[in-house]
Amino acid sequence: MASLQEQLLKAGLTTKQKSRQANSDQRKKNKQKRSGVQHGASLQEQVKEDLAKSQAEKLAKDTALNDARNKELADKEQGLRIKQILGHHQLTGVNGDSEYNYTFNNKVKKLSLNTMTYKALVNGRLALCGLNETTYLVTSETAAKVAELDHTIVLVQNDKVETEEVDADDPYADYQIPDDLMW
Fold this sequence. Notes:
The chain is an alpha+beta fold. The chain contains 5 helices and 5 strands. The protein has a domain at 90-156. Helices cover 52% and strands 16% of the residues. The radius of gyration is 42 Å and the shape is rod-shaped.
């Protein structure tokens, strides 16, 4: 039995040139299928997928850059806000004879204060804040506001000390209770 190609040639419906061309095309398609590369519509789909993938990668990269830029801008804005709060609420004209020692950037520093300011700082009514190698003396409320924004700015904020009132009728008023006494 003769192949369909031979039958078409005998009937005169095709030529030898067209027959060879059809065989060649068939071999090429089979080879492309075996190698995994597809032609025509599948190649267009692959190009579309590659384009979509590259656009998604570009969008992710742009989003990351925008997030980093926004974070940097927010940090800068917060720094300026802290500097403005400290500059506006800073106490000045408190120089005196009493020296208060504190640490700033792993260095011990001294601050000369008058007696009333020294007591207020020790009792917790005042606080020390440090920004860009500058020390600011502010109220404890201002230090609390700054601590909400950045807790590392507050250098010294003592706990408030209650003044002890001695009852006149207390028979043990002369006997102080030691701090390290364990019950």
